[in-house]
Amino acid sequence: MAKLNPESVVILQKDDLAKLLNILRSHSYQTIGPTLRENAIVYDEIQGMEDLPIGWTDSQEKGSYRLEKRNDDAYFGYNVGPYSWKTYLSPARVRVCNASRSENGFNVVQETGNAPNYAFIGVRPCDVKAIKILDKVFINDFCVDNVYGNRRKQSFIVAVNCTEAGNTCFCSSMGTGPKSEEGFDLCLTEIVTEQSHFFVTEIGSDKALEVLEALSPQTASESEIKEAERRIENAAQSMGRNLNTDRIHDLMFDNYRHPQWDDIAERCLSCANCTMVCPTCFCNTVEEKTDLEGDNAERWRIWDSCFTLEYSYIHGGSVRHSTKSRYRQWMTHKLASWHDQFDTSGCVGCGRCITWCPVGIDITEEVSAIRNSSTVPEETVDQPR
Ligand code: SF4
Ligand code: SF4
């Protein structure tokens, strides 16, 4: 059962949250949080609590997402929408360098990655973990990506534990939720009853202590902590889906010839939606642009997807020419080779790829189908394509 550390837990009342937002803004943070737009809950700049999807929830299923009214005024009474925080940390289009002609040739200037200081409000535990995973991709011993690195260094994370699980969620299976264990500055558990509305709040950094100073919050009582833990446990027990991760690395590699890949390919549109909504997918491409005089050129980094034919294009053609090979590459990378590369799973169990797949392909069902009729290939000399 998820336990909160009583030594670092305080209570923020409902009105304190508006004050917290103002304090963050006075510390020069641009506050980004959930908002209602185009019949979905998406992240955008928020100026005050009135911008939050108060009293709304999301109902999710395979290939289906609907907003519904709640019977309370919860601030964070939904799960996750189509956006994730990578939208801000590694934007979909970003200039990485530019070159301009000078008398002595070309002067090439790399982008410094300067961006606003973001305070992310309402980061779900699976997404806190997704950010930690992206840290390993973009900030490691081999390289530090300026664009991501600077945004990340300056970010302030207000996480929100889940007290209700969505139908497509499976964070419990992946060990990423419904409680955030680390990687946040503040972590809220929202408690709404007929009489009260407050947040049991864990403090996760010195930055957070500084921000909270002006609010002088009360230490949480034992019963308040227990109530928060009870609600988080309720989410763990009502998880919409489950993914058995036992020997998942070997299961994927041993079954690259499994007939289920053909079955998936019959349904998959190769539309790339799953990779766009996934909080850890980071494939990108670069485009170069020059002006008509040929004096200035810019290099832009743009989100791409392993589901496009062009993504695996190398000399002579694409390496993964079929939908089957592209889906297999995506799922095998997420659940198996990600471990080899980054020592972690590439999937945090947020369920977005299930909800936003137009034909309702469900990664948990596909893994089960392979596991239930696992076949180790007799020939292992040729490589999957
Ligand atoms: S693979 Fe699907 S469930 Fe896993 S993190 Fe990506 S979008 Fe979420
Ligand atoms: S699995 Fe679904 S979302 Fe992903 S590419 Fe195929 S059809 Fe699109």
Automatic annotation (TrEMBL):
Cross-referenced InterPro entries: 4Fe4S_Fe-S-bd (IPR017896), 4Fe4S_Fe_S_CS (IPR017900), Helical_ferredxn (IPR009051)
Domain 4Fe-4S ferredoxin-type: 257-289, 338-366
PROSITE patterns named among the record's database cross-references: 4FE4S_FER_1, 4FE4S_FER_2
Domain of life per record: Bacteria
Pfam families: Fer4_22
SUPFAM superfamilies reported in the protein's UniProt record: alpha-helical ferredoxin
Record key words, sorted: Iron, Iron-sulfur, Metal-binding
Matching PANTHER family: ANAEROBIC SULFITE REDUCTASE SUBUNIT A
Protein name (database record): 4Fe-4S dicluster domain-containing protein
UniProt source species: Rhodohalobacter sulfatireducens
